[in-house]
Design a protein that fits this description.
Number of helices: 16
Structural class: mainly alpha
Radius of gyration: 20 Å
Order of helices and strands: HHHHHHHHHHHHHHHH
CATH class: Mainly Alpha
Number of domains: 1
Helix content: over 70%
CATH architecture: Up-down Bundle
Largest sheet: none
């Protein structure tokens, strides 16, 4: 039997520690990326678009996780993925040129996307349907605390100590790697309540979940790739400025994410997603029109708060899914999430060179499509819950 949730060696603690490692490595990588690519590698919108498209290729191939699970347990696979992630981040600062950054990005991203695939699967298996929204919100809050520490370190490192990019990447990636090794040595293997399918699962009855996942991936890429890039390129934000902005985001998330998780459990997925998508239509339209750096920063913070509401897509799937489908569908859904993500950064990088506003208006259009799709959540969900029972 698995350890009780109050124990230190518990599934929740494993997921929390894993989230801390992922945040140390990936959030640090992202916080430094735009300034590193512009200041050290002289990237333009073309190169950053190609890099971000390459970063999403492992996400597109996330369905292959189900084949890895033929030889590795999910928990072990999560730790292997964290090793790849942290090693890739550690090496990033040592290769400040185009091909070098492409290579380290693919290595880092392979670990990141495999981890996120397995992490989602384990979370939905280890938490009951009633506790999942609250527990996922708690994990988001823990990630925000870890991110706050990372951004505080980066702000001090670059504002006070004038640290080199290579040193910062080495510290963040190396620390994450050491924690991963410690987890491997200390944490037990936790029991899985349901044996998972070890083949690809693509079911017609999950069509709405697939659609919401696809639109979410396309829309999120516009935010991840171009919102931060706009802050640096258009408004001249420094590493310290970007880091402070991230810190504000995560300070809010520490408090709001658990509350949002509980709220989703109370009001249901459809209402939560409706509010998220209406807000995102307004935010992306604001990005397209903004000419003031402070107003752009406010939009960025509001945008990040909406991220927590994406919990509703995961809990919607948990409610409608056959428990045996969770691991396989997690890989398939990540691939669906990244179909557009492979194309959008490079394609929209070219559009960015012509007119950056068009990129964000496209994001508003995707949010509108998501809003329409989300109105079917309760109807489809109730039918499928009945069929699962």
């Amino acid at each position: 039997m698995s350890a009780p949730t109050s124990s230190f060696k518990s599934p929740f603690v494993f997921l929390a520690m894993s989230s801390v490692v992922m945040t140390l490595a990936f959030s640090g990588w992202m916080a430094l990326l735009n300034n590193f690519t512009i200041e050290a590698a002289n990237f333009t919108g073309r190169e950053i678009g190609i890099l971000q498209s390459l970063r999403e290729v492992p996400g597109f191939l996330a369905f292959t996780a189900v084949f890895v699970l033929l030889v590795l347990k999910e928990q072990t696979f999560a730790l292997v993925s964290l090793c790849l992630l942290t090693i890739g981040v550690t090496l990033t600062g040592l290769f400040p040129f185009e091909l070098g950054l492409y290579a380290t990005t693919v290595l880092m991203s392979t670990g990141f996307h495999y981890f996120e695939t397995v992490n989602q699967s384990l979370s939905l298996q280890w938490f009951s349907k009633d506790e999942a929204p609250k527990q996922l919100g708690r994990l988001l809050s823990i990630k925000s605390i870890a991110a706050l520490v990372v951004y505080g370190f980066i702000w001090l490192a670059f504002s006070v100590y004038s640290m080199q990019f290579s040193t910062a990447y080495l510290i963040l990636g190396g620390l994450g790697f050491m924690i991963t090794v410690w987890m491997w040595l200390v944490m037990p293997q936790f029991e899985q309540k349901v044996v998972q399918h070890k083949n690809l699962i693509l079911r017609k009855r999950y069509w709405l979940y697939y659609l919401l996942t696809f639109l979410s991936g396309a829309r999120r890429q516009i935010f991840v790739v171009f919102a931060g890039f706009m802050m640096v390129e258009k408004f001249g934000y420094s590493v310290a400025d970007i880091t402070l902005l991230y810190m504000v985001n995560h300070l809010l998330n520490i408090y709001l994410a658990p509350k949002i998780g509980e709220w989703i459990g109370h009001v249901g997925e459809r209402k939560a997603l409706t509010m998220e998508y209406i807000g995102l239509i307004l935010v992306f339209s604001g990005y397209a029109l903004v000419d003031n750096g402070y107003f752009a920063a406010a939009l960025y913070v509001i945008d990040h708060v909406f991220f927590a509401m994406a919990i509703a897509i995961k809990t919607y799937f948990q409610k409608i899914a056959d428990p045996k489908d969770i691991a396989s569908t997690a890989g398939v859904s990540f691939t669906i999430n990244h179909i557009a993500a492979v194309v959008i950064p490079a394609l929209f990088g070219l559009i960015w060179l012509y007119n950056p506003s068009l990129v964000f208006f496209a994001g508003a259009g995707l949010a509108a499509c998501s809003l329409i799709a989300s109105q079917f959540v309760d109807k489809i969900g109730y039918q499928l819950q009945a069929s699962v029972r």
